[in-house]
Write a structure and sequence with these properties.
The complex is a heterodimer of chains A (416) and B (383). Chain A has helices spanning 20-37, 56-71, 90-103, 111-124, 127-139, 254-262, 283-290, 304-326, 339-361, 381-394, 399-410; strands at residues 144-147, 163-167, 170-181, 188-194, 206-212, 218-224, 230-243, 247-248, 294-295, 298-299. Chain A has 416 residues and is an alpha+beta fold. Chain A has a 4-stranded mixed beta sheet with strand order 1-4-5-8. In chain A, strands 2-3-7-6 form a 4-stranded antiparallel beta sheet, with no helix packed on it. In chain B, helix 5 (98-111) packs antiparallel against helix 7 (232-268), helix 7 packs antiparallel against helix 11 and helix 9 (314-341) packs antiparallel against helix 11 (353-365). In chain B, the strands form 3 sheets. In chain B, strands 1, 2, 3, 5, 6 and 9 form a 6-stranded mixed beta sheet that branches. A 3-stranded antiparallel beta sheet of chain B has the order 4-8-7, with no helix packed on it. Chain B has a two-stranded antiparallel ribbon with strand order 10-11. The chains are: A alpha+beta (416), B alpha+beta (383).
Chain lengths: 416, 383
């Protein structure tokens, strides 16, 4: 196995000049296709994001959906055709993704495969790895999960302790991963493990694996979330043996590969196969719900205090969305050039938390009901959504860590 | 599905150029020492409050005519292009009669007739200061106008006084909002029509600004001094929004300066053996200031992208009001924390943090505070 060249630029190769009319036609086609094939809501509440898949029932439903989208040629459009992709361009996929967003179709359950593992394998994987893994990611036959976080090192990836020891043509794994999204459903895991505990820099002792989950000694135990549902596992590794060929690149390259993997979050542009990873919830949805709620004998939207608070939330939502536009105009960003890029996660997830929390306060007595109750507004969607949103203000670096990052990297303040 | 909300945010090449040269100019010509030399407390109350040579340079740069049609000598880049200039002025606390002159120009353009345009627009471009007399009292939402014009033969006699008339001491022309037979109108008044004691400078909280109480009683005007009664209501409505947008622009600039001064202090001041910027109790609110400023700036340049010379539409109204809410609150938060984070130094007059807190109070009140605009946004956004 040769060392992997990790480039800073994770973009796929520049697409050939694209015929605008072709994209226009694609837009019409996909619109018609979605209209006909988007499944109606089942009699159970679907997850809002790939991190919230909690039951076989939900997974089966979404798996069918992903397969259907792929079969129609609307997933992995920019991935090479020899590995199950469409051999087209990123622009094609963006057109399709946009239409899916407008229509609020169900999510793709295999987001870790489509958005992280897949692009990684596509860009730096060996021919063998591409042959073996890419198609199964697209068809959703092979669910992928991610093994980065550990119980004692929530936001500090460099300190990963799970041990991988080479024994002939196998690695023996011992340790624990946590917050493994889809861990109990996954066939493969992108795994960051320590192969050299004595490396001078802790980062140099890490290696990256495309690990099979089905071997003896890997035990994913579902974690019950604050919503009462299951969606993550704590994954225990006890003398688990995986083939040495699961190693990606060379030993010691793990940190770099993991960092590259984290860059794929930018969507199709960065190489993701496409599809929605979460169904966005916007203020307009909240207002729709609020219109059905009463306070003091009239619509809650007539309450002057509520109106004031809603206006503030609407301003904030608009400002965050406009920030994405402004970030493209250099002269409007040059006082703190990285501010928008580095603070968006913090602002967006915290805004969502407050907006969802506020949605419950508009429900009067029914704000105390939960999923499963017949009288709960929108089937308990808002209650569950508020609880689940904590995964975004905690996962991927807590808001408090994010504030440190922004304070230190953007404002240049001393480390805390 | 509801209507798609307007997310336009664009900057023309000309606007970008103006913005960059404005930053350069304001930095060169408004150091903190220069700002402090012009404060109320350092000069007399009846000092005009700005440096005449700086004003003349601004005139030469053509900024007064940046949104004025070419036929009157302007460059016609659109009112949105003034935002970059106002932001730069706010950042360096450069106070001149620029903003009142610009808003007055807009009112003339939107409700004046050809003769009034020809008489006044070239003069304003040439540096004659124009200002607006909007307020009878503290109420930006007033429904009754107390300043009145009463017909006397061929002419009209004015009664009443106005508060918070910006740069009244240097003004060559006043646009006075008044009531004429129950209708709102605007009269063009020149200083020679005023009695000797008509102009009384206010003692302002923001010592970089100048505004006066002006008594217009017994001023006699002819019909030709009145703006077009059929377009004046819409024009005033639009100018209040443009005024709010430009106040927001100044406030965004001042928020940036306030944040810079906080960051500078947090990076140099040590307590208990550590740079105080390493303490999260100071670091995290500083990040909040940055985020609030980012929001205000995005909303501001969105507003700049949707206002134009036509009657402002609902999208433009929403944008201007949102920008004003976000910017005046961001500045107040930044400036307030700026005092606190400077510790004992922050409590002194010598510390520049006070300049921003005073400006914050000015920005809150000019063209209506955050609550004023939220109240008006509610029916537009919620029905």
């Amino acid at each position: 196995m040769t060392a992997i060249e990790i480039g800073k630029n994770v973009n796929t190769k520049p697409s050939k000049s694209i015929d605008r009319s072709e994209l226009k036609e694609l837009q019409q086609d996909v619109r018609a296709w979605l209209k006909e094939h988007t499944p109606s809501n089942p009699d159970f509440l679907l997850p809002q994001s790939f991190m919230e898949v909690g039951s076989e029932q939900q997974l089966d439903f979404l798996r069918d959906w992903q397969y259907k989208v792929w079969s129609a040629g609307y997933l992995g459009m920019a991935w090479p055709s020899e590995y199950g992709g469409g051999g087209l361009s990123v622009e094609h996929q963006k057109v399709v993704d946009h239409e899916m967003l407008l229509r609020r179709v169900p999510i793709m359950p295999n987001t870790i495969g489509l958005g992280w593992a897949g692009p990684l394998i596509n860009h730096v994987g060996s021919e063998q790895e591409k042959q073996k893994y890419l198609k199964g990611i697209l068809t959703c036959e092979d669910i992928w999960c991610q093994g980065f976080s550990e119980p004692d090192h929530g936001s500090d990836l460099g300190s990963v302790q799970l041990k991988a020891v080479r024994d002939q043509d196998e690695y023996v794994l011992n340790g624990t991963k946590t917050w493994t999204t889809l861990g109990n459903f996954a066939k493969y895991m992108i795994l960051l493990a320590r192969t050299n505990p004595n490396a001078e820099r802790k980062y140099d002792g890490l290696s990256f694996f495309l690990a099979p989950m089905g071997v003896t000694g890997i035990d994913p135990r579902p974690i019950q979330k604050l919503t009462g549902e299951y969606g993550f596992t704590e994954t225990f590794f006890t003398d688990a043996r995986i083939p040495a060929s699961s190693l990606m690149g060379n030993e010691g390259q793990g940190w770099k590969i993991a960092m590259q993997t984290l860059q794929y979050e930018r969507g199709a542009e960065a190489g993701a196969a496409g599809g929605l990873s979460r169904v966005p919830v916007v203020m307009e949805d909240l207002l729709t719900m609020a219109r059905t709620q009463q306070r003091d004998g009239e619509s809650v939207l007539q309450d002057p205090v509520v109106r004031e608070q809603l206006v503030n939330l609407l301003i904030e939502e608009k400002a965050i969305r406009l920030g994405l536009r402004r970030s493209a105009i250099k002269v409007l960003c040059d006082d703190y050039p990285h501010s928008l890029a580095l603070s968006t996660k913090l602002r967006f997830t915290e805004f969502n938390r407050r907006m969802r929390q506020y949605s419950l306060s508009l429900q009067g007595a029914t704000g105390a009901l939960y999923v499963g109750d017949e009288s709960v507004p929108d089937g308990g969607f808002w209650q569950r959504s508020y609880f689940n949103n904590f995964s975004t203000t905690i996962g991927g670096g807590t808001s408090q860590i994010q504030a440190n990052i922004v304070g230190e990297s953007v404002l240049g303040l001393a480390k805390s | 599905m509801t209507k798609q909300s307007n997310m336009k945010l664009a900057l023309s090449e000309e606007q970008a150029m103006v913005l960059e040269s404005a930053r350069e100019f304001c930095k060169e010509n408004s150091s903190i020492e220069q700002v402090r030399a012009l404060l109320h407390s350092k000069t007399q109350l009846n000092h005009i409050g700005y440096d005449e040579t700086v004003w003349q340079q601004i005139v030469k740069l053509g900024w007064l005519g940046i949104a004025t049609p070419e036929e009157f000598g302007g460059s016609n880049f659109g009112i949105g292009s003034v935002v970059g200039i106002a932001e730069a002025m706010g950042r360096y606390l450069l106070s001149t009669p620029f903003l009142p002159s610009i808003v007055a120009t807009q009112l003339l353009l939107r409700a004046g007739n050809q003769q009034q345009h020809e008489q006044w627009l070239p003069k304003i471009l040439d540096g004659s200061v124009a200002t607006l007399a909007l307020l009878d009292n503290e109420d930006w939402g007033a429904t009754q106008i107390q300043c009145k014009a009463t017909q006397e033969g061929n002419s009209f006699r004015l009664t009443g006084r106005k508060l918070m008339v910006c740069d009244a001491l240097s003004a060559s022309v006043f646009l006075v909002v008044l009531d004429l037979d129950g209708q709102t109108n605007v009269a063009i008044i020149t200083p020679d029509q005023l009695s000797a004691s008509a102009i009384r400078p206010h003692t302002l909280l923001d010592e970089t600004k100048r505004a006066c109480e002006v008594d217009f009683s017994d001023v006699l005007i002819m019909q030709d001094a009145l703006l077009d009664s059929s377009s004046v209501a819409q024009a005033l409505h639009d100018c209040m929004l443009i005024g709010a947008m430009l106040t927001a622009a100044e406030a965004v600039g001042s928020t940036g300066a306030s944040l810079d001064s906080i960051v500078e202090y947090l990076k140099t001041r040590k307590q208990f053996g550590k740079l105080i910027g390493s303490y999260q109790a100071l670091k995290h609110p500083s990040v909040d200031i940055l985020c609030q400023m980012d929001s205000a700036k995005s909303l501001l340049y969105h507003a700049a992208s949707v206002v134009d010379s036509e009657a402002l539409d609902e999208d433009a109204e929403i944008a201007c009001r949102m920008a004003k809410v976000a910017a005046s609150e961001a500045l107040l938060y930044a400036a307030d924390r700026g005092i606190q984070f400077h510790g004992g130094m922050g409590f002194t007059y010598e510390c520049d943090a006070q300049l921003y807190l005073r400006r914050a109070q000015w920005s809150q009140q000019q063209y209506g505070d955050a609550a004023h605009h939220r109240k008006r946004l509610a029916p537009l956004l919620l029905g």
